[in-house]
Amino acid sequence: MQNHNRNNKILITGGAGFLGSHLTEKLLKEGNEVLVVDNFFTGTKQNLAHLLGNPHLEIMRHDVTFPLYVETNQIYNLACPASPVHYQYDPVQTTKTSVHGAINMLGLAKRTRARILQASTSEVYGDPEVHPQPEAYWGKVNPIGIRSCYDEGKRCAETLFFDYHRQHQLDIKVVRIFNTYGPRMHPNDGRVVSNFIVQALQGKDITIYGDGQQTRSFCYVDDLIDAMVKMMNSEDGFTGPVNIGNPGEFTMLQLAETILKLSGSKSKIIHKPLPSDDPKQRQPDIELAKEKLGWEPKVNLEDGLKETIAYFKKVVA
Ligand code: NAD
Ligand code: UDP
Ligand code: UDP
């Protein structure tokens, strides 16, 4: 594989979003040509503002549910709203983005013979009965619930990736991303880390859904991006899927208390109803990532939260 040089024309769909903007920054820093394709549904030009003067970056407004004809030799397919509030706003468009978006990007990869990586998700495991979740677990997903547009859309995208691989010999890579946080998360996107930090900084009540005993495992964005690029450049033939996340597992109550401590906030904790189909627990098994990518996360929750709180202080305080 060519990498880290100006002959590498890398397409990032969803490049103006939270993860996409960090990925764009890293790939430009490493000396690549980057084309960002985004419809700016949840992403913003502001996320890329610090990179706009870079002559090796091109940004195109485009919706991946429509065909795209460009030349490229690597594709990172990240386009898709990731927070429940955003992906449930227009659920039909969410499924279209995952499914039609995957078909178009796989068609593009087939024509250009580009290597293509799919940003899949721990949500393919649904509300898991196996804990922690290894890649071999098939998941427990409700096909008709309010989260299904996202979960089933991402599952179908994985199916398409593996069928293009088997049927058309495409060079595919699939990563299953677990909850990730850090600077440039959207302040109003409704995800738990951004919600709690914004509430703490503004002195508003911290809204725990349900009893707060449900768990998540939070990965700092720099660790996540590092793994994603390692996966893209991993040995030929390793398709994944591979879990990427930080196995440190916390209840939402513990997360709220940690954010209150680190921000010095006097906000009080209140409880709101638990949304339907909310998974009770989630923790990645990352043995495969360790073995195949030589990767494991380096940033612990407190250090990552300090960076994230510092970012949100500039944006909302
Ligand atoms: P995000 O919402 O910040 O970014 C998604 C980007 O995709 C946005 O810039 C948005 O405008 C763009 N987009 C949405 N629909 C599009 C369409 N039809 N055509 C073109 N662009 C479109 O979310 P994120 O956290 O950066 O997530 C990026 C990817 O990683 C998503 O595919 C998401 O499912 C996946 N992921 C993220 C997490 C996480 O914790 N952040 C976890 C699992 C998976
Ligand atoms: N496609 C695209 N860009 C390309 C090549 C294909 O967007 O450079 C789209 C094309 O519109 C098609 C989809 O990708 O709908 C799937 O392409 P494929 O070649 O697999 O299927 P076919 O064109 O044979 O239906
Ligand atoms: N959550 C919460 N308060 C909030 C936002 C979310 O208690 O203000 C809970 C939510 O019910 C879930 C967990 O935090 O149990 C993680 O939610 P998020 O939307 O960040 O991610 P996902 O559910 O997709 O993992």
From TrEMBL:
Pathway: Nucleotide-sugar biosynthesis; UDP-alpha-D-xylose biosynthesis; UDP-alpha-D-xylose from UDP-alpha-D-glucuronate: step 1/1. It is a single-pass type II membrane protein. CDD domains: UGD_SDR_e. Residues 11-308 form the NAD(P)-binding domain. GO terms for cellular component: cytoplasm. Its cofactor is NAD(+). It is found in: Cytoplasm; Golgi apparatus, Golgi stack membrane. Its main location: cytoplasm. Its EC number is 4.1.1.35. It is an enzyme of class 4 (lyase). Keywords: Cytoplasm, Decarboxylase, Golgi apparatus, Lyase, Membrane, NAD, Signal-anchor, Transmembrane, Transmembrane helix. Pfam families: GDP_Man_Dehyd (PF16363). It comes from the Bacteria. GO terms for biological process: D-xylose metabolic process; UDP-D-xylose biosynthetic process. One of its GO terms (molecular function) is UDP-glucuronate decarboxylase activity. Belongs to the NAD(P)-dependent epimerase/dehydratase family. UDP-glucuronic acid decarboxylase subfamily. This is UDP-glucuronate decarboxylase.
